[in-house]
Specification:
25% strand, alpha+beta, binds calcium ion, binds fe (iii) ion, ten-stranded mixed β-sheet
């Protein structure tokens, strides 16, 4: 784990990259000391808000919010995440513009039914510690949708909306991925916040690690403003840069999020502890550890900080008895990509690809996944994951992208076996990664349909396939529909009898005020293996 006990109070890079409004978002005085609020043990920080006797009406001003801080520490916004039936994680991260923050800063969180916070339903105090980048992951108990905010050092954070994953007959999930900062604005997030889903499922590529251009150039609307990121400070600065975007902050505050990572939170197409470029192998464990630490610090996740550069992010969210949502990690434990990690290669695959021992999830997670399939009890079994699982192949054994499940056929067979042996309705897999919107068929080797895959397009990252290639890709046997030239996200409305996926697309990603519309809506009847297209 990279530690920086005496870093600069503010990163000049981030200062200049962001411009005035969010110029002060960089980390400051971040260093190392252990645990703030421990969300993982689920210890409630307050009495149950559902119990009228616990309702507090004492004026907020009586709460000690710690020593005065010169600058607003809440410019990275707020978020909530990983809801269960009775609680949710409340997230923020304090940053300072000038004076370094103390090693430990008390942060008060408050739940309320109204915007004015005149009446506080529940409150608690977390300690934001330098070792955790002054992030807060506080578990708050609640029994209904509520508003939340933080207060510290005489400052009050923006207000967010949170909710538990309680019993319901309708669940609305927005799925998102791939939000390269330079190649577009976040109109998709503005539209998402307006929709007001119950949950945002983020499937990875929340940041990109690449160095930025010196100037905004053709097709780039803003710049990373720094070289490729490597250290913990670099990664923190990059998250702060992305969170400088008001549309992203508003979506983060709109409802709870469930977040998993893909490759770019660390480095393009890394596999386990193997970097993209073999010559960087020696330094990669430290780089990955820094990246995982920064990811954890910035995400509203119900887990303890990484230990020794490892972080378990596969987990399950039960939304009443309507949906069992299983989130998996196809990056941290995977075998290296086969056959030199070729992309758009139509030649027959090398022998390595068929090796039974190659894994996408690693042995432990594979066992865990099979257990979750057996334990799933929701009407819908949902798998949130990184790379395309349907065969994105013209057939005849060609593998067009060795980074996807096509490049891990034995692992995919084992995953399908786990799904099939649970003897439940077909699953719904929600995927990101390839910067296109699509619907895929999940079919086992013997031709049995296992489920449906909804691939959400990128929020802002550029198309990976050339214009006009959709008609060719749509001929692939397991591709039901595809739209590759627009950015956006997907609205999933899940009811007992049917699942509706509405693919939202941004008209012009180079404009922050772009309109956002629908490409296509698909309806999947419960128990069916293929959705049917309907009018947008
Ligand atoms: Fe991406
Ligand atoms: Ca990716």
């Amino acid at each position: 784990m990279q530690q920086n006990p005496h870093m600069h109070p503010v990163s000049r890079r981030t200062f200049f990259a962001l411009g005035a409004a969010v110029a002060l978002a960089a980390c400051s005085g971040d260093d190392t000391t252990p645990a703030s609020t421990a969300p993982a043990d689920g210890e409630p920080s307050t009495t149950s808000p559902g119990d009228p006797a616990s309702t507090s009406t004492s004026p907020p001003t009586t709460i000690d919010t710690g020593p005065e801080l010169a600058d607003d520490p809440f410019i990275l916004g707020v978020s909530s995440g990983d809801p269960d039936a009775t609680s949710v994680v409340l997230w923020t991260r304090l940053v300072a513009a000038s004076d370094p923050l103390p090693d430990e800063v008390p942060v008060v969180w408050e739940l309320s039914e109204d915007e004015s916070f005149a009446s506080i339903v529940a409150t608690g105090t977390a300690i934001a510690k330098a070792a955790h980048g002054h992030s807060v992951h506080a578990v708050a108990e609640l029994d209904r949708p509520l508003l939340y905010r933080f207060r510290s050092g005489g400052h009050t954070s923006p207000t967010g909306r949170c909710r538990p994953a309680g019993p319901t007959d309708e669940l609305r999930i927005a799925s998102a991925s791939c939000q390269h900062f330079e190649t577009g604005f976040y109109a998709a997030y503005r539209d998402m916040a307006e929709w007001g889903p119950d949950l945002v499922l983020h499937l990875g590529d929340f940041i990109y690690e690449y160095g930025g251009g010196a100037e905004v150039a053709e097709g780039r609307v803003r710049t990373h403003g720094s070289p490729e990121i490597v250290t913990l400070d670099d990664y923190r600065d990059r998250y702060a840069l992305y969170l400088g975007d008001a549309d992203l902050r508003s979506a983060r505050a709109a409802c709870p999020w469930a977040v998993i990572w893909d490759d770019h939170e660390v480095e393009n197409n890394y596999a386990g502890i193997i970097p993209e470029k073999p010559e960087e192998a020696a330094d990669f464990p430290a780089r990955r550890a820094a990246a995982y630490q920064a990811w954890w610090e910035h995400m509203p996740v119900r887990m303890d900080a990484p230990v020794d550069g490892a972080l378990t992010i596969h987990r399950r969210i039960d939304w009443g008895d309507l949906a069992t949502i299983v989130l998996i990690d196809g990056r941290q434990y995977r075998s290296d990509q086969a056959c030199g990690d070729a992309v758009l290669d139509f030649s027959p695959p090398c022998d390595e690809v068929a090796d039974e021992s190659r894994s996408m999830l690693g042995d432990d997670q594979e066992d865990w996944f099979a257990e979750q399939m057996r334990a799933a009890s929701g009407t819908w079994t949902v798998i949130g994951q990184q790379t395309v699982m349907s065969s994105l192949s013209p057939g005849g054994g060609a593998i067009l992208n060795y980074d996807q499940w096509d490049g891990y056929p034995a692992a995919r067979r084992r995953l399908f076996d786990a799904v099939r042996s649970a003897e439940r309705d077909p699953v719904v897999v929600i995927t990101g990664d390839i910067h296109l919107a699509g619907v895929g068929r999940l079919v086992d080797d013997d031709g049995t349909a296992v489920g449906t895959e909804f691939v959400t397009t990128s929020i802002s990252s550029r198309a990976n396939v050339p214009e006009g290639s959709e008609s060719l890709l749509a001929l692939f046997p397991d591709v039901l529909a595809i739209e590759a030239q627009h950015r956006g996200y997907t609205r999933h409305t899940i009811r007992r009898d049917a699942w509706e996926a509405d693919f939202r697309i941004v008209d012009d990603v180079l404009r922050a005020d772009s309109t956002v519309g629908s490409w296509q809506r698909f309806v999947l009847e419960r128990g069916a293996t293929e959705p049917v297209a309907s009018e947008p």
